[in-house]
Design goal:
Layout (H helix, E strand, L loop, with lengths): L4 H11 L1 H5 L3 E5 L4 E6 L13 H23 L3 E12 L6 E6 L2 H14 L3 E10 L5 E13 L2
Antiparallel strand pairs: 1-2, 2-4, 3-6, 4-5, 5-6
Helix pairs in contact: 3-4
Length: about 150
C-alpha cells in the first residue's frame, strides 16, 4: 500500500475513530518524516480550555507509528510493533492548530534491518514534538517502539 495522507486519514476513521473524531489528521508523510495536525476544539479540550493531553499523545504517537508502519510495509517482512514506553513533557497550553512531527524514519529503517539480520527484537526511541502556530513547542513525546520479526 502506498502511504498517503488521504489513505491514512481514511484508515483513522475506521481503525482509530477516537483520533479521527478529535480532529487528528495526517498532513504529510515521507520515508523520513511524518507530520500530523490537530486543532484545539470543544471535542478535544480539557477543563482548562486547552487541548487534552491524551489528544496530543494520540497525535504524537501517530507520527511515530505511521513511520514504523510504512517502514515495515517497505521491508516486505512481517514485523510486530508495540509501544513499550512513553514519556511526555508539556511546556505551554496547547491552543489553536498544533503540528506534531517525527523525522526519524531512517532510524526506524536501520532498526528493522537489524531485526531482520539478527532475528532479535529491536527497540527504537522516537520523538514527536508539538508546535503551535507561533512556532513554540507545547509538548514533546518520546515513544519506545519494540520491533520483532514474526516467525
Amino acid at each position: 500500500m502506498k502511504f498517503t495522507p488521504s489513505k491514512i486519514n481514511f484508515f483513522l476513521l475506521f481503525k482509530l475513530p477516537s483520533a479521527f473524531f478529535t480532529g487528528i489528521r495526517v498532513k504529510s508523510i515521507s520515508t523520513k518524516k511524518a507530520v500530523v495536525k490537530v486543532k484545539h476544539r470543544w471535542i478535544n479540550q480539557n477543563p482548562f480550555n486547552s487541548m487534552f493531553w491524551a489528544v496530543q499523545g494520540m497525535a504524537a504517537e501517530f507520527t511515530t507509528g505511521i513511520l514504523v508502519m510504512q517502514s515495515i510495509d517497505n521491508s516486505g517482512r512481517k514485523i510486530s510493533m508495540l509501544v513499550t514506553n512513553m514519556d511526555a513533557t508539556f511546556t505551554k497550553k496547547a491552543t489553536g492548530k498544533i503540528h506534531f512531527e517525527c523525522n526519524q524514519g531512517e532510524e526506524i529503517v536501520r532498526a528493522i534491518e537489524k531485526a531482520v539480520k539478527t532475528g532479535e527484537g529491536q527497540t527504537v526511541l522516537l520523538t514527536s514534538e508539538g508546535i503551535n502556530e507561533d512556532g513554540i513547542s507545547v509538548s514533546k513525546f518520546q515513544f519506545e517502539w519494540s520491533l520483532k520479526v514474526k516467525a
